[in-house]
User: Fold this.
Amino acid sequence: MTIWNRAGVLNQNMSSIASEFADTTWGWHAERLLRQSEKVSSQEQLYELLNLAEMGLALSSAESGRRRALSLALLDHPLSARYNPYWRSAVGEFYQRALSRALAQIGRAQVTSGWRVWKIYNMGFVVKTATHTIGFDIHPGWVFQNPLSNEQQEQLADMLDLLLISHYHADHLNPSFMQKMVERKKPVVLPASVWRLPNTGRLDNGPKRYIQEDQESHQTFAGLYVHSYLGAQWRVIRNAVYVVEVDGLHILHPGDNENLQIYECVAQNHDIDLYLANCWAKLGESVARIRPHTVITGHEQEISHPSPFLHSFQSSFQQLAHMRRDNPDLMAKMAAHVLAWGEGAEERRSRGADH
Assistant:
């Protein structure tokens, strides 16, 4: 069996797009891979798809261009090829390359206005502004080989001022990384029920903080004003929806919230500059309510999830295309990015330039 198991529609899209870049090295490889897609052994194809996707991403910016869409569609396939015996090592090597670059960029980035953001894994993001570096739902990666090493996690904990956790699901929190923040006497903020669970409650004493779950919470952590709204996943799992005020910006992270009424409250109280959105949790409806300046999708390729609950990068591009069709005026005013692991985006303009 080859790993090209959903080739029908994708091959047609690849043929039309790759031909636009036929005079480039990347385009030539894309065309060659298309011709050989049913003949290459799964090991060879696995590595070639990863390499071709990585090359395409390096040639494109964090915008929804055609080469970028194709590169992320290519990446969907090796990330989903869990039956392949080489999958754990190949995907782990890709993740390590991507996150090593991201950690280096986070460390040396000088932000004087606006924000820079990097996707770590799943709904894990790092946002850096002129004065603070904030982590949301940081997870070092799992299932594959070579997730963030202990040294890399310590490096990231050194750079963060604050860590916010949305809810108790293993793909959104990692007790080991939380412990590293606590050891550095940096606040870790999350719902009260999560702090009471065994694997987080055993963390060593430190600046552990939690938000109340029966009402909205507005508190100050690490010198930042943090608003928390009580959302829910599947109507029963308590999920904190965070709005962080930093340097005049309002940054929204929803975790896995599916309660759209929360976003009506958010829109009434905040003018959102950056929405770190969940790709499968009613993306279009939440954006229509929030009307953010920029949206960046997350939760693609949570590879510990079974296939019915696995959402591709390609599906995020499709959702954004539908949103542009259904709400063109709103989408024309809004920047939208789909990021692979370790990739970043930025907005250099100050709030006053657009508001």
